[in-house]
Amino acid sequence: MSSVTIRGIKKRYGALSVLHGIDLDIADQEFVVLVGPSGCGKSTLLRMIAGLESVSSGTIAIGERVINDVPPKSRDIAMVFQNYALYPHMSVYENMSFSLRLRRQAKDIIDRKVREAAEILNLGKFLDRSPRQLSGGQRQRVAMGRALVRDARVFLFDEPLSNLDAKLRVVMRVEIKALHQRLKTTSVYVTHDQIEAMTMADRIVVMNAGRIEQIGTPLQLYDTPANLFVADFIGSPSMNVIHGTLHIDAGGVHVEAADGTRLAVPQVASGRDGQKVVYGVRPEHMTLAEDETGAPAIVEVVEPTGANIQVYCKLAQTSVCAIFTERHEFRPDQQISLTCPPDKIHLFDAESGLRL
Amino acid sequence: MPSKLRRSIFYWLILSPLVVVILFPFGVMFVTAVRPRDELFVYPPTWGFSEFRWENFAEMWVKTNFGGALMNSLYVSITATAIALLLSIPAAYAMSRYHFSGKGAYRTFLLMTQMMSPIVLVLGLFRLMMSLGLVNDLNSLVLIYAAFNMAFTIWMLQSYFNSIPRDLEEAAWMDGASHLTSLVRIFLPLAVPAITVTAIFTFINSWNEFVLALTMMRSSDDYTLPVQIYAQVAGRYQVEWHHVMAGTVLATLPVAIVFSWLQRYLIRGMALGAVK
Prior knowledge:
The structure holds two protein chains of two kinds.
Chain A: E1 4-13, E2 16-26, E3 31-35, H1 42-50, E4 57-62, E5 65-66, E6 77-80, H2 92-102, H3 107-120, H4 136-148, E7 154-158, H5 166-183, E8 186-191, H6 194-200, E9 203-208, E10 211-216, H7 218-223, H8 228-233, E11 240-249, E12 252-257, E13 262-264, E14 276-281, E15 287-288, E16 295-304, E17 309-315, E18 318-324, E19 335-339, E20 345-349
Parallel strand pairs in A: 3-8, 3-9, 6-7, 7-8
Antiparallel strand pairs in A: 1-2, 1-4, 4-5, 9-10, 11-12, 11-14, 12-13, 14-20, 15-19, 16-17, 16-19, 17-18
Helix pairs in contact in A: 2-3, 2-4
Chain B: H1 3-34, H2 55-63, H3 66-97, H4 103-115, H5 122-131, H6 138-162, H7 166-174, H8 179-208, H9 211-216, H10 225-231, H11 241-275
């Protein structure tokens, strides 16, 4: 069993606290992505799982075994580093076989395992080259191959695609996901890119300033973000947010923005009349209102991407983005009316940021 | 004439006085070493001579106990270099990779000791060696050279070690290597250029050192090469200049060869040490 259990993990560097109590359960064979802005502590958490950083308090366990005091070399974890960390004085073959040679495995077994991994990752013809003769994508594959040959219980990825260009990142994302589907090894993947998180994860852990904001499947986070931070972080372009006041009366519920614009809102489970709230709706859920119930907006900038049209407009004195897949004609300064389906509206308390 | 060629010629012309000044003594040294004895003091002095008297070298070797002094110099330089490196590499590794209290003070200490020349401290060092019973023993020089070079070697090695990514050792640990294994199989092979450069510096400093060797070594059998050559000139009624120059040629030759062979490491090492 290669589940990873993290309980009450805290990390301090002297007086500076970077992780404030992390609880996380990663199931066997699961692909979990830790995502968050720079400095949120995701890499620190990953390195603590790897054993490269000490644990200030709390426990980390793989399966049934608590590994706090187990050195990295004995944890049976393979790691892919952001800068690849390939041994420059060894060939690709030697890089990939290093861990097996350390374990003094038989030469023919080493050869078979290395060639199998090279086959999976299309590295067959690069085995005799040295790392400096490879491109970025090839080096990253060698780093993955080095992890692959080991049959480790857990794979850790520390922003492995950050140093690659955009196109290559898309290709490698698919490769990593395909690899996981094939090998089914428990994997923990760190990234600051929410698109990588959404496309690759079984579950996503959104972190911010040393705390977990929300854990869920990609669509759970997308459809029901627990707070403003998650709502803003997940989804590109980000969710539109408009500040206003909640009004609950006999006629129904609505949010009134600072300039008086009324925004229709479905029934909310919690929320008081007069509460300061944040009204959120994703750009892709906005539509043009057919009747008078829409909110008035003024077009500022139109960006046709080909697949859709991104329209930036001013609504209730706030800049919002609306994405339309249908081809409309928009001009700057044009007055339009926007609405969205009631089930796609998100409401958050303005002070705490929590979802209502 | 293409401008690049013109520029080269121009620069050579500007630099030529400097080249002459630097190469002139070496030229005189070589010519004096190979000319016959009776042509040493012709007046006016001339570059030309009748024949290449290579026997000067053989005579010099025997007469001045050159072989013995050469062995002494080699022993002292190689051993001092080895000891300095043996102790500097772990020290530089610790400075580069670990945090420990007193690290800043230690670094300042290293910097300060580099400013001290052993020549200034020769009296104190002599008394120290006396109390250790090492006067007139080559090992006194080994100890002193190793100690005084270490400040420089630790400083230089640490700068270079800082440029070796920590990821590599971490990757080795994840692959199952112990700290020692990752140090020996991953780190040290990458540190070879820096270690080589540092070794050259230490070797050359030890080879050329004169004042301490003159002070510590009392009997001519134990002289190192610079002192032995000096002894052919100092306090003599008659100086065999062709032998002296032949000895000097041979004394400077190993250093020149080592320098030219390893100069690419030298430039790279200096640049890396300087930038980091």
